[in-house]
Amino acid sequence: MTQTIADGQVLDVARDSSHRFSKQPTESIQLVAGLGVEGDAHLGATVQHRSRVAADPTQPNLRQVHLIHTELFDELKAEGFAVAPGDLGENITTTGIDLLALPVGTLLAIGETALIALTGLRNPCAQIEKFQAGLLKAVLPRGPDGQVIRKAGVMAVVLSGGPVRPGDAIRVSLPPEPHHPLERI
Q1: Which helix (H) or strand (E) element contains residue 127?
Q2: Which terminus of the chain is less hemmed in, N or C, by CB atoms within 10 Å?
Q3: Which residues, including other chains, have CB under 8 Å from residue 136's CB and lie 6 or more apart?
Q4: Are 19 and 11 in contact, with CB atoms under 8 Å apart?
């Protein structure tokens, strides 16, 4: 049985047709089933991230949509960083959902028709350090046990397409148990 938990909301959306670090905020994005965000450099059924294409261009694209919770921006601001929606390369900035605590396979129904499934945690590259010095360490701190804590957002695949706009509701449905935590992808 699928369990629904607290809902959230889309705060902002962004895309970029080039492989730049930051994405440009826009009024809406269009999700395309099995591919990702229309007009975004990472759109595709197979991997589009340069390093992953170089390793094996036939890998499935489990990173079609990148989401970050705005609460991370608040945390980073408290540490002296200036980060706004789209700056860290995310397509969807959310509010009200602890994205990092959700398990693999969590479904997010966004707006009227879009449906995505979470696949894993984003592993930020060195470009984040070029954006702002010290930011890589801030989004990859170590816990008391020395384990890396990945805070740079989550990745998802598009199951059903549709428009996504700021203000759209996000309905969260957990997969059947046992739940598996999101891991770096």
Answers
A1: helix 127-131
A2: N
A3: 124, 126, 128, 129
A4: no
Assess contact for 84 and 166: CB atoms under 8 A. Answer: no
| SS3 annotation, 55-89 | HCCCCECCCCEEEEEHHHHHHHHHCCCCCCCCCCC
What angle (nearest 5°) sits at the alpha carbon of residue 86, between those of residues 78 and 62?
A: 110
Query: In angstroms, rounded to a whole number, what is the distance separating the alpha carbons of residues 27 and 21?
Result: 20
Q: What is the torsional sign of CA 70, 128, 150, 61? A: positive
| Residues ≥6 apart with Cβ < 8 Å to 144 | none
Tens digit of each residue's pLDDT, the chain (185 residues) = 455 566 899 999 999 999 899 999 999 999 999 999 999 999 999 988 777 777 888 899 999 999 999 999 999 999 999 999 999 999 999 999 999 999 999 999 999 999 999 999 998 888 899 999 999 999 999 999 999 999 999 999 999 999 999 999 999 999 999 999 999 99
